[in-house]
Amino acid sequence: MRRREFITLFGGAAAMWPIATTAQPTPMPVIGFVHARSRDDTASLVAAFRQGLIENGYVEGKNVAIEFRFAAGQYNQLTGMIEELVRRPVDVLFTGADPTAVAGKQVTATIPIVFVVGGDPVNLGLVASLNRPGGNLTGTTILTTSLEPKRLGLLRELLPPHATLGVFLNPKLPLSQKQSQEVQDAAREIGLSVRIFWVGNDPEIESAMDTIVRERVAALMVGADPFFDTRRNKLTSLATGHKLPTMFQFREYAALGGLMSYGINLPDVYRQAGIYTGRILKGEKPADLPVLQPTKFEFVINLKTAKSLGVEIPGKLLSFVDEVIE
Q1: Dihedral angle computed from the Cα positions of residues 305, 308, 309 and 311, in that order, rounded to the nearest 10 degrees
Q2: Are 195 and 252 members of one domain?
Q3: Does the structure show a pLDDT above 80 at 149?
Q4: Hey, what's the torsion of the CAs at 36, 39, 40, 45, to 10 degrees?
Q5: If 0-12 CB within 10 Å is exposed, 13-18 middle and 19+ buried, where does residue 171 land?
Q6: 67/160: higher pLDDT
Q7: Which residue, among 163, 157, 180, 148, has the nearest Cα to 217 in the 3D structure?
Q8: Quick check: 227 and 259 in contact, CB under 8 A?
Q9: Hey, is 168 helix, strand or coil?
Q10: Is residue 6 included in any domain, yes or no?
Q11: For all residues of the chain together, what is the average pLDDT?
Q12: pLDDT surpassing 70 at residue 286
């Protein structure tokens, strides 16, 4: 065989051999986690969210990535944070608290969003209905604002006749006017005098506390709002220092020294949010996942705080308390 023929034959055979290729790794899905609260006071909720993901087979850093953004009560930062994540882009958005979910709805109509909100998601314009969300959003409503009248009634059991109850509300929360109306309507029904204090920053909290002490307001209920959640150490410390009975929305406050709390088990809600997020990553659509509502509520009393305040808890309250902190 001539040399030219050998080279031609060799070259033709080589062309038929399979070419070795390096398989491209599948991109890791990314979750955008945006919350109106701060990173530090949301640590237990993030842990619960991660647990929900694990229950669906997703482990952060192994087969899913999470990009975190926290507004720390500065609601005007939320839209920019979400826009940044949408440009990245992320595969699913989680939005914690009403202002965050509303901002998410305004920014994207295509990226799936799982929310936790305190108000009615239908009235907020997030979904068409609870059973059939119908768009790119679903999640859980934790009914925090709807429970204000219940908290008011529980705190009233500690007050003498004709006492005035102070209520902290944040004017920057979109639902604050509705909160105010519901609180005043509920107070009117049970014959209780309430005074609304509009506070949206630390100096206003301190000033309102001074007014409460000076004018001998009998007790304080702090409205459901993520800004107050970021200030729960400050709020419980000031109330204890001023010997002021208090009612809050989450157990976190009572554990820090607040007198009472009434609301849902928040970590469990965030675990469920992680489960929903995992299901969406696996291909389910938000439109097909009904909005969840809590069925269990926790009434917590800190007896150590009651003793330090000189407050006697009536047997009526103790008879249906879910947890006593001593």
Answers
A1: 80
A2: yes
A3: yes
A4: 80
A5: exposed
A6: 67
A7: 163
A8: no
A9: strand
A10: no
A11: 91
A12: yes
Tell which wins on pLDDT, 6 or 45. Answer: 45
CA pair distance 222, 232, nearest whole angstrom? 10
Residue 317 within any structural domain of the chain: yes
What number of other Cβ atoms are within 10 A of residue 305's Cβ? 21
Q: Residue 46 and residue 267: Cα distance in Å, rounded? A: 8
Q: Using one digit for the tens of pLDDT, what is the confidence trace for 289-314?
A: 999 998 889 999 999 999 999 999 99
Query: Given the DSSP bridges, would you call strands 65-70 and 219-222 parallel, antiparallel or unpaired?
Result: unpaired
Output the pLDDT for position 21. 46
Same domain as 302, residue 284:
no
Name the residue range of residue 40's domain.
30-143+265-296
Structural element, H or E, at residue 34: strand 30-35
End-to-end CA gap in the chain: 98
- The per-residue pLDDT for range 20-42, each reduced to its tens digit, is 444 456 689 999 999 999 999 99
The C-alpha atoms of residue 213 and residue 239 are separated, in whole angstroms, by: 10
Q: Give 152's pLDDT tier (boundaries 50, 70, 90).
A: very high
Name the one residue in this structure whose structure tokens are 């928040």: 266
Place of tokens 């491209």: 24
**Residues listed for the chain:** 326
User: What is the rounded CA–CA span in Å between residue 50 and residue 30?
Assistant: 13
Spatial separation of the C-alpha atoms in residues 145 and 147, rounded to whole Å:
5
The total domain count for the chain is 2
Q: Give yes or no for a contact between 237 and 246, defined as CB atoms under 8 angstroms apart.
A: no
Position of tokens 């097909």?
288
Q: What is the mean pLDDT of residues 230-246?
A: 95
pTM: 0.86
pLDDT at 89: 94
Q: What does the radius of gyration of the chain's CA atoms come to, in whole angstroms? A: 26
In this predicted structure, the answer to whether residue 206 has a pLDDT above a threshold of 50 is yes
Same domain as 217, residue 117: no
Rounded Cα distance between 52 and 39, Å, is 19
Which CATH number goes with the domain that contains 288? 3.40.50.2300
